[in-house]
Design a protein that fits this description.
615 residues; binds zinc ion
Length: 615
């Protein structure tokens, strides 16, 4: 790895090309922020019609939610050539009718950013939103600033951006003419523009070379807690593993990871990332580096795998995306589910994480998908109506969607004696379709059946398009694992409390008592109790595993447990309390248990080895 300022070499374009009549020419001055707004000016491409409609997107690919970016636009004006008056009529949140359209000289409007907007409804998921932070950072998710004329998205977009001295434009776009205080960026059409976020700030960039692929990492961390060096170190190994998983090399020449680390809570209450063809944009908490490292790897692995799907395997709804009247595909299980599965499966298969860590992630997903979502609405139906009726089910694409991926992978490996899995299937589908060739939603299962087995078609019909909960027992059996959905047992417990840590007092804290069991009730835990000693041993982060683990393993019923806690009363006065009770076993229900089947068949063992990458 080498640290350097990162430049995608821009093709030099001539002035003549710059000002072709068919181009959109946008002007923005990042040094001129008024009331947290930027003024955008547009010299439109030649318009021959007498009337036209100018639009901002209602929705953009990858978000699966309607945000109406026109809501953030104000003071929309059109100036006519030779003093002609242009009539502007606002049609709805996102569109303006203009006439006479062929006489428009310039359009101008103001945009406020979504990240700290005063519009207190329907917050935009920050990685797909916009940030105007004068003198510090401008996150141009381009669809939040630049609109298009109806039926005119296939035209060059030229952005002339004036910027504070020293600011650097991080993006995957390559056609950039970069100056000290002004950049000129040229983009082929509106789809590519929306597909290419640009982050402006003082540069903190690193670059990684993986085979023929050049990867940019750009970081904005307001308190300099995270650096591009740190991220690059974390992603280097991950990207190598990703290349290995994808068959030896990364299927792109260049890619940009754009990270904005925030030291405030986000309006949407979420953090995460949004994928694009050659980049991904991250908004994550600016936190202690150690805690964040695995999260960054998981999110980055997920976003990066989107270069497989939906970017190279997608239906018409996505390939011919309609920014103002989007149709939904039935196959979110593929776009998001398989992506999420691959992000974790890649890490276990290439040895970046332990088997146990992988299984724990999958088991969490099983529990979440059952507890928090409707497990019997067919996934294809949920996907098709995710903008309205099944909006609240969307996040299940990361839970059950990933588990569909896992089941499919296991089955493929079993029926092929370990020779074929979802890795191969995705490669074959990407070959068959590709970035510019969409499939029909209704053809996908046929195409997958052709690549695989009739049993796979049965699975897709019944468990993806059907309403049956996933067949974990039968599926894990194929890789020689015994799965138990539920087991009841009398066990020694800690009372059913959830425990957190208070770094100031260095005590473990009882943070939740919602699931107190009979023993916990006898001890009379209260939320907020800070545990000082546990059976006369001082308890801290360092010895927690030892103290609590040996209690659970070595204690017999009837023995005494004494816990000393610090408790605040209603007035905030703290005092020490002693909690004691005789230890008593309680019924504990455990779910989703996995163990190796010692009597597994050769076919099952071969499938397991192929699945987990064991030699
Ligand atoms: Zn995703």
């Amino acid at each position: 790895m080498m640290k350097q300022a990162f430049f995608f070499i821009s093709a030099l374009f001539s002035i003549g090309q710059l000002f072709a009549d068919g181009d959109y020419r946008y002007y923005v001055d990042l040094t001129s922020v008024n009331n947290d707004k930027l003024t955008i000016k547009l010299t439109p491409p030649d318009i021959t019609e007498n009337e036209t409609v100018f639009m901002f997107p209602a929705m953009v690919p990858g978000t699966y939610d309607v945000y109406d970016f026109g809501r953030f636009v104000s003071n929309f004006k059109a100036e006519g050539k030779d003093g002609k008056t242009i009539t502007v009529q606002k049609l709805d949140k996102n569109s303006y009718k203009l006439s006479p359209a062929n006489a428009i000289k310039e359009i101008s409007y103001e945009v406020e950013d979504t990240w700290d907007t005063d519009i207190k409804e329907k917050f935009v998921f920050e990685p797909g939103g916009t940030n105007i932070e004068e003198g510090k950072n401008f996150s141009l998710n381009t669809h939040g600033f630049f609109g298009y004329f109806k039926n005119k998205i296939e035209a060059n977009f030229i952005l002339e951006i004036s910027k504070p001295k020293g600011f650097y434009a991080s993006t995957s776009l390559t056609n950039i003419k970069s100056g000290e205080t002004k950049d000129v960026i040229s983009v082929f059409n509106y789809h590519d523009l929306v597909d290419s976020p640009i982050m402006y700030c003082m540069p903190d960039t690193a670059s990684i070379q993986i085979g023929k692929s050049q990867i940019l990492i750009s970081v904005y961390s307001p308190n300099k807690i995270l650096t591009s060096d740190f991220i690059a170190r974390n992603l280097h190994e991950l990207l190598f593993a990703q290349a290995e998983y994808l068959g030896g090399e990364l299927p792109i020449d260049k890619y940009a990871f754009l990270f904005y680390f925030t030291d405030k809570a986000t309006l949407s209450g979420a953090s995460g990332a949004l994928e694009h063809s050659y980049s991904s944009f991250y908004v994550l908490p600016e936190a202690d580096t150690a805690a964040l490292a695995q999260e960054i790897r998981d999110v980055a692995a997920h976003e990066f795998f989107h270069i497989v799907t939906p970017l190279n395997i997608h239906s018409k709804e996505i390939g011919e995306f309609d920014f103002n009247n989007p149709g939904m595909s039935k196959h979110l299980w593929l776009y998001e589910g398989l992506t999420e599965y691959a992000a974790h499966h890649m890490q276990v298969k290439t040895g970046l994480i332990e088997f146990d860590d992988f299984f724990n992630v999958m088991i969490d997903k099983m529990q979440n998908s059952r507890e928090n979502y409707n497990d019997t609405v067919p996934f294809t139906v949920m996907s098709k109506y995710v903008l309205e009726k099944y909006k609240k089910q969307y996040n299940n694409v990361y839970e059950k969607g990933a588990l569909i991926g896992m089941c499919l992978d296991i089955m493929l490996r079993y029926y092929s004696n370990g020779n074929y899995g979802t890795q191969d299937m995705m490669k074959d589908l990407a070959k068959q379709y590709g970035k510019n060739k969409s499939f029909n939603d209704d053809d996908l299962f046929n195409d997958i059946e052709k690549l695989s087995y009739k049993e796979i078609r049965y699975f897709l019909n019944n468990y993806v398009a059907g309403n049956k909960p996933l067949p974990y027992k039968e599926t894990f059996a194929m890789v020689g694992l015994n799965y138990t959905d539920k087991k009841e047992e009398d066990q020694i417990t800690l009372g059913g409390i959830s425990v957190g840590y208070n770094p100031t007092s260095q005590h473990l804290v009882v943070v939740n008592t919602d699931k107190l069991d009979a023993f916990g009730k006898k001890l009379k835990f209260k939320e907020g109790d800070e545990i000082i000693t546990f059976n006369n041993r001082k308890l801290g982060l360092d010895n927690m595993k030892d103290v609590l683990g040996s209690f659970i393993q070595n204690t017999k019923e009837g023995e005494k447990l004494v816990i000393e806690v610090l408790r605040k009363d209603k007035k905030g006065n703290e005092s020490t309390k002693t909690l004691k009770a005789k230890v008593k076993k309680v019924k504990v229900v455990e779910t989703d248990l996995l163990e190796i089947n010692e009597k597994a068949t050769e076919q099952q063992i071969a499938a397991r080895k192929a699945w987990l990458g064991i030699n």
